[in-house]
Design brief:
single chain; about 400 residues; alpha/beta; Rossmann fold; two-stranded antiparallel ribbon; 11 strands; about 40% helix
Amino acid sequence: MFKAITLLGFVLFSLQSMAAQSEKEWTFLVFINGHNNLSSFGDMNIRDMEKVGSTKDLNILVEWGSETTTKTRRLYVQKSTNPAKVTSPVVLENDNYDMGDYKNLVEFVKWGIQNYPAKHYFVAVWNHGSGWNRLNPIRPQDISYDDHTGNKITTEQLGLAMSEIKQYLGRNIDIYGSDACLMQMVEVAGEMKGDVNYFVGSQDLEPGEGWPYAPFLKKWAAQPTMSPAQVSVLLSKEYLAAYSKGGVYSQRDVTFSAWDMSGLDSLYSSINELRSDMMGLGATDFGAVKKAAQYAQNFACSGCSDLGDFMKKLKSVPAMKSRSSVASVEKSISKLVLSTDNSDEFRNATGISVWLPSYKSDEMQSRYDHLKFSVATGWNQFTKSLTQ
């Protein structure tokens, strides 16, 4: 697939491949799409990774697209003492590479699995994000928007990518994460249900600096036998710490969470029950449900709201007080979400977002009807009623 491999890159790749045949504890693969205005932050994040670098127990691999070159570089991240530039070896290069094509994400991860085997794999996609839907009606994004090609990886394609990677690996991916805005939605997770064990990311906007790679990797590398659950929770905690007083980045309002995806079955069942209860209400009572949806904690994309806070608001609706479905959803969320780490601005967030649209869009609703979460729970019936 790669059109151009430098001689130096080939030699380095060969040496790294020989050195990497022994199975390590973890391989961390980060797909950094800097083909946009985030390019400088990609460079910064890689330099932060190099403060720790790969170890005898942890491989750190990066697919790096930037605005400084037409080449997309594949790196084996190594510890560096030069904070001014990226020094890790380039093992492969490709010209005019589309980072908005999910197949290239799949190829990168397959390559990493083949050449850097490990007991566990953590796959991260780095770029702009907008949940399952979009930030505005003109520019659809989803995730990994490539300004060079105009392509992006849709929520549905992200699910396909995880499915294809699972088929190649022969088991579930241990952790999937989005170093991108607004991706911690049940609709996004639903597309990779059964293919990924843990799911990490932010419900709201991420600052440009994104994840705190240096402190996170330092603690992870010091305890490389941590379980996938422990690694997921560690990242969530370190993210909030990075944007808190005394953190490595400036203090800002952020939210982050880590999920155990085995809890989705229970959540789906309770949401299906809740949807049935709400759809059975009369017009006046359903009007109160609409108001509860409007006042639930919301985030910076159209209709992105916190599911747990919506449950809290539903408890004030008289017709829903006697229904067990609200408590069932809350119980399911508590099992699904391992860690919710929010600044004060998002104190009401419970770590999981869901679509609660406030206006009608036939185009968005048509797409939503086919999302796996919607199909499994019938939630699209509720979303349609919200906008009537």
